[in-house]
């Protein structure tokens, strides 16, 4: 066995994990690794302009492709700049591995130059993390990091690499397997419990499925659609679950919760059997917990035992992988055609009632002389190809996209759901575009959010990543302004973006293209033009500054208590 | 409700911080905590006594199990177990109270482990209630300071018998 350096061993380990893309930013503590990366032609390295951008890009890459995203940054400020990105991935259960440089082991704890205790800092926002103190442990740590990131409930793992570890030599062999006694996620659901659940669903009269991001993470969309259609169960999804069930399906209710549809919230509130699949009863979904699905028996399928009965008391839990459990549930239907037919007949009135809610209060907005942001999203949906990947920033742009873009497939909608990270969408689009160079990738942004990682314009230009950024420019931090309007007597404290750059000129300054649209009749042409331009484009849509997101459930109110348009 | 939870963990740097960080980050309460290596030097045992309703305790156990370095979590409330804690008490012992302090120490089977002209230091082992009773009795005499180790527990070898203190 040939002796190689820790840095070369690191590259070997990435190869063994099948890594083809990495995002990051160099610095003093990772010079050895970057020197080795120069020779690794099979790994495409994308240099971001800020470490936060690199982590979000790795996250977007992971969400779009289903593979583990990889990020490499230096010690100290390089490492601390990744924290928001790591916390974002943690909240949404996204598999990424973040490698940080560290000062040499003999300087750790000495307040050395560019030293930060990043393992300590990220303990609460990683699934697990490592400080590799000996080059002999490097292979095992990396193997475990990837394994932990992608298995069970996925999540970010950080590996801290001191400089002297990376330039010392080792007889390197990447481990074939992982032995972690204390970590063995449950994939297969309890058979008896699955049978009991099916018994309850077959006897229910007002059932509804509440599907979350876990369905996408488990690649269980096909099984979900088959299950829902076979049993004619209406389906509402969380923000993270958008696309896990096709929104055009007659059984689809759209999103539920604070900005959910009237039909979804009414259905959940009146249901007698709520089937939660890969969702975690977030407060933005439940509103007032005591009045969430008050009449329903609650079934909860989740791979993470801690999600069960955390916020809402669950009647029938199943710990397991969404896909395997759904398959088990489908298998339970064998030989029960009579019961199924009976159930479908008995739930006919329920579905008619739901259709009435849909007709009474569809998602809507008033057209006018000024561009309405919802209209821009509808037109993007109409014009963009079917396999388009949409990312969003956070705020009104995100909610309108969830409401008005008709997602048909999983992994087509990348958004920061749990942490709500402004500045996520643009770098995430970079990651998605790197994973799928041939597909259209669009970031639907606000004028506030886009400025949080605007520096990544240089990245898209440098690597010719043809990301399209559609800015819904209302001159405000719109979602915060909306709350101020509704609950703070229209006192718009510091939510006006009184000074913003000229986004067209800014894009041009970086070497990208910029377009501006001020009239509704020009919206479609601008979108078409942006998609035709081969490189990255910013489109600045000057939209109605006072438009709000409706329906809206005030924070802490029950979800059937909606403010409508 | 008070529960003693035994947490078997990898004997590695940073594991205590993961466990303690979990409690503070999620707003769980730690009443006492003791940590030491076990018979298998690769593992450590943490005994955490905590309080909370059923739902909170369930979350605590599940969240602990979710930590990668946690090998096993045992809630002693589900088992029969013996519980001990040690206390060192430094107490004023001047002419008129010296004999009284020794009498109390004798009743509780405490040991005198340090003596000075104006004080005794006593050590006592027992369960939480015994220690608290000891402190209560000594308080009027004048406790200068005390220090407690936190509870340690061990499952009873023969389950299903009458619980002994």
Explained architecture:
The complex is a heterodimer of chains A (565) and B (165). With 565 residues, chain A is α/β, with parallel strands linked by helices. Chain A has three domains: 3-171, Thiamin diphosphate (ThDP)-binding fold, Pyr/PP domains (Rossmann fold), CATH 3.40.50; 191-360, TPP-binding domain (Rossmann fold); 373-542, 3-Layer(aba) Sandwich (Rossmann fold). Chain A has 23 helices and 20 strands. In chain A, strands 3-2-4-5-7-6 form a six-stranded parallel sheet, sandwiched between helices. A six-stranded parallel sheet of chain A has the order 11-10-9-12-13-14, sandwiched between helices. A six-stranded parallel sheet of chain A has the order 16-15-17-18-20-19, with helices on both faces. In chain A, helix 13 (283-286) links the parallel strand 12 and strand 13 (297-302). The model of chain A has no long low-confidence stretch (mean pLDDT 97). The longest helix of chain B is centred in the middle third of the chain and has 13 residues, at 54-66. In chain B, strands 5, 6, 7, 8 and 9 form a five-stranded antiparallel sheet that branches. Chain B has a four-stranded antiparallel sheet with strand order 2-3-1-4, covered by helices on one side. Chain B is built from four helices and nine strands; from the N terminus they run βαββαββαββαββ. Chain B starts with a strand and ends in a 10-residue tail after the last strand. Chain B has 165 residues and is of the alpha+beta class. Chain B folds into two domains: 2-78, ACT domain (Alpha-Beta Plaits, 2-Layer Sandwich); 82-154, ACT-like. Chain A, domain 2 (Alpha-Beta Plaits), CATH 3.30.70.1150. Helices cover 28% and strands 40% of the residues of chain B. Chain B has helices at 15-25, 54-66, 98-108, 128-138, and strands spanning 2-10, 32-37, 43-51, 70-75, 81-92, 111-116, 119-126, 143-148, 152-155. The interface between A and B is medium-sized, with 19 and 20 residues.
